[in-house]
Amino acid sequence: MRAPHATKIVVAGGFGVGKTTFVGSVSEITPLRTEVVMTTAAEPREDLSAIPEKTTTTVAMDFGRITLDADLVLYLFGTPGQKRFWFMWDDLVRGAIGAVVLADTRRLEECFPALDYFETAGLPYIVAVNHFEGTDRFEGEVVREALSLPRQVPLVTMDARRRIAVVDTLLILVGRALDATPG
């Protein structure tokens, strides 16, 4: 019996799009979370009008693990969403095979920095629209056009609270990363 391949995946996106939920819903270990209660220091920086129930924020990262099969273990690193913590992204992304960029259709502009980051870095990524209850559902082509997303970048709609949806999303990313790997 040989050891499984350990692979690093980054989960990124704007503030409040569901990165912590994504990592936590699929992790087979108790996820590491660095969430803290938001203070008034965040108020001038973040528009909370679309997510008034949001009371915490990730200040360093989220970390989880999932074994996809006997040969493959994914280590999930969720990035902080607030701009003032973006300095951590370079360290979190180092060694990753790919990234899931979470998007919220109520605030698509929140995912542009992550899209730009991974496009510039040349890291394979997919976009996962995290569909929140009570919000409008948009066709994939409408979202793709709004994000100016290239055709080769997979776009999925999912619910970060649902384990199977997160596993399916991760499988799509792993496939994309394999396709982008030379040889």
Describe the structure.
The protein has helices spanning 19-26, 89-93, 112-121, 140-147, 163-180, and strands at residues 5-13, 32-37, 56-69, 72-78, 98-103, 125-130, 155-158. Strands 2-3-4-1-5-6-7 form a seven-stranded mixed beta sheet, with helices on both faces. Helix 1 (19-26) packs across helix 5. Strand 5, helix 3 and strand 6 (125-130) form a beta-alpha-beta unit. With 183 residues, the chain is α/β, with parallel strands linked by helices. The model has no long low-confidence stretch (mean pLDDT 83). The protein is globular.
CA gyration radius, whole angstroms: 16 Å
In which range does the helix fraction lie?
A: 25-40%
Strand portion: 25-35%
Distance between the termini: 26 Å
Structural class computed from helices and strand pairing: alpha/beta
**Which of globular, elongated, flat, extended, rod-shaped describes the shape?**
globular
Uncertain segments? none
Oligomer type: single chain
* Secondary structure: number of strands: 7
Strand order of the largest sheet: 2-3-4-1-5-6-7
Number of helices: 5
SSE string, helix = H, strand = E?
Answer: EHEEEHEHEHEH
Indicate the mean pLDDT. 83
Largest sheet, in brief, is: 7 strands, mixed
Key attributes of the depicted protein:
single chain, about 180 residues, alpha/beta, 7 strands, about 25% helix
